[in-house]
Amino acid sequence: MSTNESERALTFWPDGEAEVPTGPVVRVIYVSRSEVRGAVLNEMRRIRDHAVLNNRPYGIRVALLNMNGWFLQWIEGPQDGVDLLLARVGRDRRHHGLMVIHRSQGRPRLFRPWIGAIVQTPESDRQFDLRVHAQFERFNQGEMVEPTAVWLRLSAPPAPDMPRPLGRNPRVMLLSAQGAQAFNLLEWLALNDQRTLVRRRFAGSADDAPDVESDYADFPGYGPRGVRLVANARKGLAMGMTHAFLPEFAAVVLMLDGSAGRNLRLTERVLVACRQVHHSPLIVGLGGGEQVSADIQRLVERQGMPWMAAISPSARPDKTELWQAVEPVLTRLN
Ligand SMILES: Cc1cc2nc3c(=O)[nH]c(=O)nc-3n(C[C@H](O)[C@H](O)[C@H](O)COP(=O)(O)O)c2cc1C
Predict the structure, then answer these.
(1) How far is Cα 4 from Cα 6, in angstroms, rounded to an integer?
(2) Does a structural domain hold residue 163?
(3) Which residues belong to any copy of the BLUF domain (predicted)?
(4) For 289, phi and psi rounded to 5 degrees?
(5) What per-residue string of b and e applies to 160-195 under the rule 16 or more CB within 10 Å gives b?
(6) 64: CA distance to ligand 1 center in Å?
(7) What is the pLDDT of residue 202?
(8) CB 3.0 to 4.6 Å from 286: which of 169, 180, 208, 310, for a disulfide?
(9) Residue 242: what pLDDT?
(10) Are residues 91 and 207 in the same domain?
(11) In this structure, are 326 and 198 located in the same domain?
């Protein structure tokens, strides 16, 4: 397994209530060296308690990540509030050497007051430091990108053999109407193509908050820009991280099954999430002929979203048949 692809991420508190902001906001990402020794989880929880209380009056939303001895914080909100927070956080002894690596004004991407994650990666601290400093250089040279691009570059960089296009490698989300079929298909495909499967687990903080998994693998061979396939859990659609990154997806593949009710419920959940983040990815209905119904297509098109059917000639397609049906769609995304 290549080092910077392999990671394990944990978020450990439930998302706050969704408040969908409108209008442009200031988006800042900084990195800092963590001084937290021992239980990072407990310290993150303490920070979370402050953030949830203090950020709201200023209309601030944050995502905080701890990885490789660094904090990465992504802050969004009105200019004054963001700068006040930066000044306050800069005095905190739990970290030092704060460096802003992204500042822009644009559409809000964080739709929850707080998102927290710890990513554990076998990548050496030295390698990660180099990537942090490379990002700092890019920022100083005036690079203009979305904050999501900076966040992904640091926390989930593309596999070394992925094409380096001008834009980014397309991302495609796999979701299944039932069970863990999206995860199984991705695992099977990664094994077949000898690609590294990166497994990440996001867990709720409360005892009754379920764990949420999100796995991905990069495939350089599909289309000129390659493709990252991300398998998500259905319940993960409600998570802040998923919302923030949903606009990064070129397509969402719905793996439909024999139950019309389940298929409709899955489609509805995806459409709601897309409405919340004002994003219209291509929705691909994948399955046997009967499973990819006109009802699903109507539902998607009624929301003005692009639709494509990837229908297998087999009534109950196995993984090979599913892949044969969807592969041409993915290749055409580029
Ligand atoms: C990496 C990091 C991120 C933080 N993020 C926030 C935040 O988003 N909001 C917040 O109110 N406090 C945050 N804090 C905590 C503040 O630095 C500070 O301790 C807290 O707001 C209490 O400030 P006060 O003692 O001036 O009330 C963060 C601390 C660290 C180390």
Answers:
(1) 6
(2) no
(3) 25-117
(4) -50, -45
(5) eebeeeeebbbbbbbbbbeeebbbebbbbbbeeeeb
(6) 11
(7) 59
(8) 310
(9) 80
(10) no
(11) yes
Q: CB of 135 within 8 A of CB of 153?
A: yes
| Tokens (6 digits) for 321 | 């048949």
pLDDT of residue 20: 55
Q: Contacts for 291-295 with beta carbons within 8 Å, 24 or more apart? A: 291/256, 291/257, 291/258, 291/263, 292/256, 293/256, 293/260, 293/263, 295/260, 295/264
How far apart are alpha carbons 212 and 204 in whole angstroms? Answer: 8
Which residue range(s) make up the domain with 224?
171-332
115 lines ligand 1 (CB under 6 A): no
Q: What is the pLDDT of residue 200?
A: 72
- At residue 151's C-alpha, the angle toward residues 5 and 82, to 5°, is 160
Q: Which atom of ligand 1 is nearest to the CA of 75?
A: 8
81/59 Cα distance (integer angstroms): 7
Q: Which of 46, 74, 88, 99 to mutate to test the pocket of ligand 1 (most atoms within 8 A of CB)?
A: 88
Structural domain ending residue among the three candidates 155, 187, 215: 155
Which residues neighbour 262 within 8 Å (Cβ) at sequence distance 6 or greater? 177, 178
- Which atom from ligand 1 is nearest to the alpha carbon of 36? 31
Whole-number Å distance, alpha carbon 90 to ligand 1 midpoint, is 9
Return the pLDDT at 207.
37
210 and 73, same structural domain? no
Residues 272-306: tens digit of each pLDDT:
889 888 899 999 999 998 899 999 999 999 999 99
Length of the chain: 334
Do 249 and 172 meet the contact criterion of CB atoms below 8 Å apart?
A: yes
Q: What is the pLDDT of residue 56?
A: 85
- 263 plus 195 within the same structural domain: yes
Q: Whose CA is nearest to atom 6 of ligand 1?
A: 51
Q: Write the pLDDT tens digit of every residue in 160-194.
A: 899 987 778 899 999 999 999 999 999 999 999 99
List the chain residues with pLDDT less than 70.
Answer: 1-22, 120-122, 201-211, 334
